[in-house]
Amino acid sequence: MGTNKKLLAKGIKYLTASLPTSFIGIYLISFSMINHFMTITILGILVTGFAIFLIWKGINTIMKSLFDGNK
User: Fold this and answer.
1) CB neighbour list of residue 21: distance below 8 Å, 6 or more residues apart
2) What is the per-residue pLDDT for 70?
3) What is the DSSP string of the chain?
4) Residue 20's CB: how many other CB atoms inside 10 A?
5) Cβ–Cβ < 8 Å for 42, 28
């Protein structure tokens, strides 16, 4: 049972892309709550949702690379 290294690298890229987007989304939400900007709140929620999607996609890709093997 081998590990698909290309698929593993792709999953790690997804996780590294999710790190800055999660910080940016949380920052936008907190900034908009302090200054009462509704449009920035919506943008922050969308960016944070995208970060959650990237985390899910990265973990899912890593699990496929580890357990599906070289097919």
Assistant:
1) 47, 48, 50, 51, 54
2) 55
3) ----HHHHHHHHHHHHHHHHHHHHHHHHHHHHHHHT-HHHHHHHHHHHHHHHHHHHHHHHHHHHHHHS---
4) 10
5) no
Length of the chain (residues)? 71
pLDDT tens-digit map of 15-63: 999 999 999 999 999 999 999 889 999 999 999 999 999 999 999 999 9
Question: Which residues does 27 contact at the CB level (< 8 Å), separation at least 6?
Answer: 44
- Can you give the pTM of this predicted structure? 0.86
Q: Most distant CA pair in the chain: distance in Å?
A: 54
